[in-house]
Fold this protein.
Amino acid sequence: MGDFYKVPITVAFLVSAIVAVATLRKRTLAERIKVFSRGASSEKMMLMMLIFILAGAFASSAKEMGSIDNTVNLTLAYLPPDMLMAGIFLASCFISISIGTSVGTVVALVPIASGLALSTDMSIAMMSAVVVGGAFFGDNLSFISDTTVVATQTQGCKMSDKFRANLFIAAPAAIIVFLLYMIIGSNAGTPSSVPDVDFLKVMPYLIVLVMAAAGLNVLTVLTIGIVLTGMIGIMDGAFDVFGWMQAMNTGILGMSELIIVTMLAGGMLETVRENGGINIIINLLTRHIDSRRGGEAAIAALVTIVNFCTANNTVAILTVGPIARQIAERFHIDPRRSASILDSFSCFAQGIIPYGAQLLMAGGLAAIAPIEIIPYLFYPYALGLCATVAIITGRPRRFTDK
């Protein structure tokens, strides 16, 4: 059809769920539906959906209150002289890890980056790629990112533990790319004017980051974040109580597709597991594997392939997660490690496909073809390389063995 999103992802999972139920052997229809419902309504799935609801409410109310605009202005205001490209990358990293969405970061920063590129005679494609790369840094690490939530919940580990394990992979990649951008963009100028920053409106993001990094329960963290955005927004006049409620409602509804996919995927995967399908997949993947390193490579390959097929890193992790957990248990892979590998390789795959939402959005906002951005996507390639090196070397050791 010439359009990768012509078939909605919810319809694709609905068809898969129907096929899974239809092919479950030696069961009545009522028993098959019971198996499907057990997977769709498991404790893990319910917790994941509750996190999505709270994250959507927090992100939308924070945006309505003006947090995103002020976070962008804050990062641009403190760009070092003659470091425009490296500074934009740093800004993109900070914003994405704060707001937990790569698409949101692309929407917020690509128009600014493309405008700066025009005023400084730099490549629009390269400046757009700088933003996209930084956006995936936060998507990979943020505590309120969909990929982090799904990776940790499917592997059974804390977000703070996964963050520390993942940081050893993502940080070297980001540092290498940051230094590269310093060299490439050393002769560019800096923004001539940046709007004033209201630091109070940046506080909800910072507080949520600190509390989540400290290991506080994610539901508590997001609830506190929602209350803070409401209080600050009402005091500032950004909205009244009912406007705050509407903002939260918009965010929750924005998560509806992901919640529906989560339920359908949970039921489908439980039906496939009951029918022996997951064991078949694991046996095929690990038939010639007899080591922890091989198990990690199998997880990485599986989530990458599924991501290429779905063009959605969250859906890829959600689909592969239960299989990855069984592979991890079989080869004694630490859950923090398997969650980190899932998230890192899904972000790598999502970052280099021209039909992914992030590149499509960036290309549209910058008025260029998404394929033009790909040669300059240094960070996704660096992330994939660092993640591969981590598997080969088994580093860091403290996250390698259970």
The first helix runs from residue 9 to 22. The mean pLDDT is 85. The chain is about 75% helix and 0% strand.
